[in-house]
Amino acid sequence: MSKPAEKWSDEITPAYAVPMTFFTSVEDTGALERTVTMEALVREIRNKSARKKEALPLGKLARFGDKLSPKGKMRRWNSNMVEIHGVELDYDAEVMAFDDAVEILSRANVGCIAYTTPSHTPDKPRWRVLCPTSRPLPPSEREPLVERVHGLFGGIFGRESFVQSQAFYYGSVNFSEHHQVEFIAGRPIDLCAELEECRIGKRTNPDGKGETPNSEEAACNIIRRMDHGVHDACVYLGSVWSLRGIPRDEAKARVDALLHEVPGEKRDKRWDERVAESGRAVDFAYDKDDANPESRKPRGKNGEEEEWPEPVDFLGDRTPRIIELAPDHVPDVLWPFITDISERVGADPTMVALCALVSLSGAIHDKWVLQPKRYDYSWTVSARLWGTIIGDPSVKKSPAIKDATAPLVGLELASADRNREDMLAYERDLARWKKDSNADPERMPTPPRRDRYLIGSTTVEALEETFRDDIQSRQRVPAMKVTVVRDELSGWLGDMDKYSAGKGGSDRAAWLELYDGAPHYVDRVGRGSFTIGHFSANLLGGIQPSMIRDAAQKSQDDGLWQRFIYCAARRATSGEDRAPNRTALLQYNALFKKLADTPPPEAFGDMGQAVKLHEDGQRYRENLDKLVEGFQLMPDTPPLIMTALGKWPGLFGRLLLTFHMIEYAASAELSPPMVVSPETCRRVASYMRDILLPHLAQANAIMFRSNQESMSQQMGAFILAKGGERLTLRDVQRGGPAPLRAPTERRALLEILTWLEDSMGWLRAVPVRPGKEPNAWDINPKVHARFAQRADDERAERERRHQAALAALDASKRGV
Q: Counting Cβ atoms within 10 Å, is residue 246 exposed (0-12), middle (13-18) or buried (19+)?
């Protein structure tokens, strides 16, 4: 199979990629699995043609294994299906027009491709629908999704649509002029939770008589003839007409008119019952979100019916979903190192990648600059990065930082060894010079200066001494910048506050200069006055969520936090007990040596020249600028994200130069190319959009979410996972958020439940005697309807954790 889809989305767009299996014939010969975009698939279906239908290929939104069927077939049979990536439905009743089907799908916002079959004609319409899912799903979940689309159309699709492994022809015969293909942008079918209530299965009538309504005309005939299934026919017509925007009363009038077309001899007691209930059947179709709305309406204080409000989505659904780091997000040479460390340590690969990129940028000379725009040569950026990992101690921040910065540590230790030898030689020369009575004062030996690459715990004053370049200097910075590494950035923040009354005033300003690589001026009584022409530093460290939340909410908004690249690290695993990938480690170490040995551009005769983007790469920068502009125009974009994205044009250049220099270091080139390739531009834009943006949103949620908000979100997730119509204190004590289970937290629990009732519309307290606190709450049924997919995801995640815990306990018992 080709490379899997890079990402999944909550919206089906032309660029949406989905794995699919193609067959060259109905005999399963020539099966091919590949990932295609919606745009490419539409072109394939539209342009494919053959002299006869049997010569056309078939497609299936699924992956298959290598098991042979009882009949000796390799691929397409039910038990050989590994996973599905969507559902396919076939319509051949020759009644509903293709354009009407497209309109229904568009109104329902179902993302899909609809196309006519090879035997379609305008007079006898036949068509199919391909509905991708938002993620791979087990084959067992296919039929319920088919039933969603089947129910949306009132049950018009053929029974073959329910065959799990059925693949369908696509294309036209002899380039038929009637062949049509339409792409409908919308949501993946598994995220169309509102269709759950109108699902229709592959049912048959109880006695096998009459018609199952599979078209508008068929449903009308069932009613006119008083066949079995009149109720289902009324529901079907109501579903179709509601999607067309026909008013409810008009739909009822149409059904009543159909019933009065029944011949007089058939107007018996059963006919009277159908006339009496036809209005309720149409109401059911128009109120699919609640199969029995009358029974679900709560009662007010005076006994009158009281409508449930629309529940508020406070669970942060607009936060971009975290996407798994893929090989295409980083330079190729880094992927073996990232996977080796991630697998052995059990750490999030996104965290390892961030540590590696910051570390490698520390070996790049700061005079290497990149000009992001085509013509504006006055704006250039250096490969200078700040990265932080947000996570509890269990996410294994320290091992990831240690392994990624090991080559920098090696450069620092080698420099220390050289300095030690140089100092011994200096002391010997100085002693000889002092013994010589005729020694020339101007020939007095000067103390050696130590090269610095990496610094741990430090202060701004210490960094100023590192960067000063005068007679008193004892250190030198070969790359014109250092990389400051702190396992816990809380210590870095503490050093800032130590001498600044908790505000970190002057120190914060100095660190902002270090990020920008600006000149720095020192005027102190004890240390004198001197100027640092280039004050520049990388920064890498980890921090716990509670610490960064406290620091961010108490500090001044001077843009410090917006300068970081964030990784909201996921939970760590135990890792693999195996030998390191020595080749990957050697390749990674070699990158540092070549980068550190690469002099600034003037050494190659390019004094002042900046690295530029290839013309074809400029569109990736421009598209990223449009993404930033879109977020900044949204009125509800959080301030941290708003201002952080304002620095993304510069961050794009910094990362682009870093990726470019890493790719050069991995090549046999003797000097870095002065033009960045379009592929590198695409890779950096993808890394920022797919990885950095979701982690920035997660960091914002962690930093500026109160404890009560956090507990409220946990309670909301618990309600969704629990399901049902009522929540009790006993339920919370048994399985609710751990911090709220204790009796001592009763007051906090009641405050959150009251907030969910009064402000969010999720709950309503069950009445109790005056003076008594409630101990049970009815759950708004609209909560389960609106957040059905999220509830499924939450239950699946809880079950996954439960099974993982059981497996770990079982493994420990076997070990004992």
A: middle
